[in-house]
Amino acid sequence: MLTWISLIVRSNSILEKMGDAQSKAYDGILFNSDAENDDSEELVGRRSLKMQDSEIWSHTHRMYLIGDNSIYFPWYIPKDFPNVALNAENKEKFLTFVRTRQVILDWSDLQKELYYVLRIVFPPMADFVHRRYRTAHFHALQDGLFESFDSDFWKTEPKTMRASTAVADAHLAYIDFLDKSKSKNEYLSPKLPMTLLLTGGGTFNSPYQLDFEGDPYAKSLVCFNRDQLKKTLPLFFENLNTLLSKLSFYKLNR
Asked: Which ranges of the chain would DSSP assign to H, the alpha helix?
């Protein structure tokens, strides 16, 4: 009985999030303005390192973390970024962070044991706890990155970076490299080929999806033909996510 109640609550939560996303998904500078900056966007801070829509003009490279932030496949920070993405001093700071702070993304024995016990005693609670731990790991990533650089790096340095996660479940994380010396006048569209990875685990509680609404890099596809794609691109991605929500590779192993 408790399991069914938990599933119903989770289903209603998903529907509410979908409704909220559709009401504000495409607000912002990429779809609704010709301006270069948006004063309503969140300022950069310890827990707000996400790339904003108005920073897409400065985007130079995206690096996805390896893994899905799970007990079986924790995140691993690669070093797959262009040599010129950061200046020499900040590049060394970032490489030092990668070498020394990987442990903050690992799952502790206590976290693993609690999850395994809940999987047996009360599976719906296990999924909730797993999601909370994933979010905590992303916060640790944000804190570690923020502390590795001075405030000028985040606010005034031309070559900087941003760290984001797919907020729905924190399975996917990525680091975007920016060059603030570039402006909107120089920007035509994102460089091809471009890679957009799916988030999710292919389950009811964590379906596969492309976090289009919260990702300026994905939304920047509209720049290829704004007049046409402004209306059709959101519908395409919403339909794609509907199909992805029914996809599970677990079924292929049976």
From this structure: 2-24, 29-32, 88-100, 109-121, 123-148, 151-155, 216-219, 226-244
Q: CA distances (Å), 168 to each of 147, 186, 188, 190, 224, in order?
A: 25, 33, 30, 24, 27
Token pair 């300022």 is found at 43
Q: Which residue ranges make up each domain of the chain? A: 27-33+53-253
pLDDT tens profile 129-183: 998 999 999 999 999 999 999 999 999 999 999 999 987 789 999 999 999 999 8
59-64 β-sheet, strand order: 59-64, 173-179, 159-165
Q: How far is CA 101 from CA 10, 48, 57, 95, 122, in A?
A: 34, 20, 30, 10, 33
Asked if the peptide bond before residue 216 counts as cis, ω within 30 degrees of 0, the response is: no
Give the tokens for residue 84.
């010129």
Q: Tokens representing 233?
A: 């691109």
| Residues 67 and 76 sit within 8 Å (Cβ to Cβ) | yes
Q: Which of 41, 68, 64, 67 is nearest to 54 (CA)?
A: 41
pTM over 0.70? The answer is: yes
Rounded distance, CA 177 to CA 220, Å?
A: 15
Reduced to 3 states, what is the DSSP secondary structure of residue 178? strand
